[in-house]
Design goal:
Blueprint (H helix, E strand, L loop, with lengths): L11 H6 L1 H19 L8 E14 L4 E5 L2 H8 L1 H5 L6 E5 L5 E6 L13 H14 L6 E4 L13 E2 L27 H14 L5 E4 L20 H5 L4 E4 L3 H4 L4 E6 L3 H21 L5 E2 L2 E2 L6 H7 L25 E2 L21 H9 L4 H10 L21 H7 L3 E2 L1 E4 L10 E4 L8 H21 L7 H11 L4 H4 L2 E4 L9 E4 L1 H6 L8 H10 L5 H19 L5 H10 L12 H16 L5 H4 L12 H22 L15 H11 L11
Parallel strand pairs: 2-6, 12-13
Antiparallel strand pairs: 1-2, 1-4, 1-5, 1-9, 3-4, 7-8, 9-15, 10-11, 14-15, 16-17
Helix pairs in contact: 2-13, 5-14, 9-14, 9-15, 11-12, 14-19, 23-24
Length: 675
């Protein structure tokens, strides 16, 4: 969820008039934040996930499944625990772009104690139950659809809302009604309107159709109420969509980590950027859009096009006249550059930025690499401004910085600490598609969190040229990329020289005989080196086995499973069309699977984890002890009285011993600190 300032939204004309002012003050706000917090050290590992649930209305009488516009009605009830018990709430709930979506997170972040991995799945189960409890049990459900297959089809919402440009002042869409956008916060409709107005026309989203035996050739989608724009935009043999809701109305699974300091955050940002396309293909879950099977498996390109606010000049379709830059891609895409010192040599693509912005950052003491990253983000205009937020105190406010930062929706996000908070430098991992069940979602979350610990502990180097990461992202969205795709990855992960080659995801995850060892083997080796209770070890092992089997093809991705279900349905005509009856039966099936009432071995096997969302007393005790020790160290440093304490034969000082434990999050379940 991005910046949620509240106020009176400005028109695009007023927003455009204030754009340079906002960007200048956003840079100043980052500089102030950076200089205040750049030396912050020893934040402990904390992390959390975000799941976006899709609300679905099951019309049992007419055998139809529609997107339920009800988030605005149930959000207040879901937030009661957080409002009444702040700091102790089990879950936290937030609005999302569409009124049929809702975002759930753990009420409090998970910590460094190893048993925290065993809390995730039960936390997700609790969140699902909380949503279901405020819905009508007869015909309303929450299903984790990454992309609802019939989004944009006539009557796809409940209540049914007609769609036409005349009825949709924000989106101007032929298909997607403005009523589907979350109505109780001005951010979402303002973004929708201003992105469209900035680019000067509706969004153009064309994705290749999956050609089946009876798919029309050439295939052209219906264009109802067309005012001429749609006919000009469509491509033959492509599914056409025309507004932000088609992308931002999809759902994802995100993970955010707190690093121990800014340097570690920059390292993790770079290392995880390489993993973004791998994890996206591994979790592919979006095989259909606009009631039509697509020849892609992921939602990424649809979202990128849905928020693409570039003008014809910025896209290179016309000579630059009104705009400053040609911009290669949408503001929603993979990262454009690494930001750690070790990643600098792999930045083989040029990035554009305003020289004045970069110089402001350099003059304030920001290093060149980070200055380029921030300045590059600021080539984008603010696209949502509120009258009450124009004039702010740059010493204490960061709204102008976050305005730009939070609307650069990239595969990985580098996040400074909020001013005046106890939160540290963070990294947000964004490309994973939401999975159908709590087990699957927990497996992906634990996998990526555990991988960060392996990277830091073994000092792995996953970096490849940024151009090859870009190429990997383009390949990751393709149909069955998890099995058929080839991705650039390093052959040796502990050396500094460049040595990448094309690999399958099976090889990257599972390795190959007498060759690349695979990430899973490194993670299992890491687990064996650490004391772990039986339940946590069993749970993590099941997650890693599941990920391993997804990579090898022994377990289907959601995209493959859903595509097969649709194609094998009695109502399917082999013409790529996903009918209302197919959508209804698919939704009922997915609801049963996600509740645990129906098994689905081909998707995830028959797991039996012992996940319990409880922090063990010893974990809390040791966490408190580490916090006190860290505070003591910081106090001593502030007084320039750091006392080195001999720690045995190696002479490791007390400061570094605790620092390393905090750094990689190795706190055992028995209350000891693993060194």
């Amino acid at each position: 969820m991005g910046l949620l300032s509240v106020g009176t939204p400005l028109s695009w004309e007023e927003t455009k008039k204030n754009a340079e002012k906002i960007k200048k003050h956003g840079i100043i706000q980052f500089i102030n934040l950076y200089n205040n917090l750049k030396d912050r050290q020893r934040d402990t590992l904390k992390w959390g996930d975000e799941i976006e649930y899709t609300l679905v209305y099951l019309d049992h009488e007419n055998k139809s499944a529609r997107l339920l516009l009800k988030c605005s009605d149930i959000l207040e009830a879901l937030q009661e625990d957080e409002n009444n018990n702040p700091g102790h709430n089990t879950s936290a709930w937030r609005m999302e772009y569409a009124d049929y979506m809702i975002e759930g997170t753990p009420g409090q972040p998970f910590g460094g104690c190893l048993t925290q991995f065993n809390r995730v799945e039960d936390s997700m189960r609790t969140r699902r139950e909380e949503v279901m409890a405020v819905l009508n049990a007869n015909n309303e459900v929450a299903v984790c659809f990454a992309a609802f297959p019939r989004i944009g089809c006539p009557g796809f919402t409940e209540p049914i809302c007609p769609a036409s440009p005349a009825l949709n002042p924000s989106s101007n869409s032929l298909y997607y009604p403005d009523r589907a956008i979350y109505p109780n916060h001005p951010r979402f409709k303002t973004l929708t309107r201003n992105i469209r107005l900035r680019r000067g026309k509706r969004q153009i989203i064309n994705i290749p159709v999956f050609r089946d035996e009876k798919t029309p050739s050439p295939f052209y989608p219906d264009i109802p109420n067309d005012d001429g724009e749609g006919k000009m935009a469509i491509k033959p043999d492509h599914i056409y969509m025309d507004c932000q809701g088609f992308g931002m109305g999809c759902s994802c699974l995100q993970v955010t980590f707190q690093a121990c300091n800014i340097q570690e955050a920059r390292i993790l940002y770079d290392q995880l950027a390489v993993m973004a396309p791998i994890m996206m293909a591994l979790g592919a879950a979006s095989p259909a859009f606009q009631g039509t099977l697509a020849d892609i498996d992921c939602r990424w390109d649809v979202i990128a096009a849905s928020v693409d606010d570039r003008t014809d000049e910025e896209q290179g379709l016309k000579p630059l006249k009104e705009n400053k830059f040609k911009i290669p891609k949408s503001r929603y895409d993979c990262i454009d550059m690494y930001i750690s010192e070790s990643g600098k040599r792999y930045n083989d693509l040029p990035v554009n930025y305003d020289e004045q912005h970069k110089q402001m950052l350099l003059d304030a003491g920001v290093d060149e690499l980070l200055a380029e990253h921030i300045a590059h983000l600021f080539i984008r205009d603010p696209i949502s401004l509120f009258a009450e937020k124009l004039d702010l105190d740059d010493e204490v406010d960061t709204d102008h910085f976050e305005n730009i930062q939070s609307t650069n929706w990239q595969s990985v996000r580098f996040k400074p600490p909020p001013p005046g908070s106890s939160i540290g430098w963070r990294v947000e991992f964004r490309p994973i598609e939401v999975q159908l069940t709590d087990f699957e979602n927990a497996a992906y979350v634990v996998f990526i969190v555990l991988l960060t610990r392996v990277i830091l502990s073994y000092k792995l180097n996953l970096l490849i040229p940024i151009s090859k990461v870009e190429e990997n992202m383009r390949n990751a969205v393709k149909r069955n990329a998890v099995l058929q795709g080839q991705f650039y990855f390093r052959k040796a992960l502990t050396c500094s020289h460049q040595n990448e080659e094309l690999m399958s995801i099976d090889t990257i995850i599972n390795g190959k005989e007498n060759g690349f060892p695979g990430l899973i083997s490194m993670m299992r080796s890491y687990m064996e080196s650490i004391d772990m209770d039986i339940d946590t070890g069993c749970t993590i092992s099941q997650y890693l086995t599941f990920i391993s089997k997804r990579a090898s093809g022994k377990r289907k991705t959601m995209a493959s499973w859903m595509r097969d279900y649709i194609r094998n349905h009695p109502d399917y005509k082999m013409d790529s069309h996903v009918s209302e009856r197919i959508m209804y039966d698919l939704s009922v099936k997915c609801d049963g699977i996600s509740r645990g009432e129906i098994g689905c071995e081909e998707l995830f096997g028959t797991p039996k984890t012992k996940s319990v969302n409880v922090t063990m007393p010893k974990c809390k005790i040791v966490g408190d002890e580490v916090a006190k020790l860290t505070e003591k160290i910081l106090t001593l440093e502030n007084e320039s009285l750091v006392k080195k304490v001999d720690d045995g034969p190696e002479g490791t000082d007390f400061d570094n011993r605790i620092g390393r434990a905090i750094n990689v999050g190795l706190i055992n379940t028995d209350g000891s600190v693993q060194m």
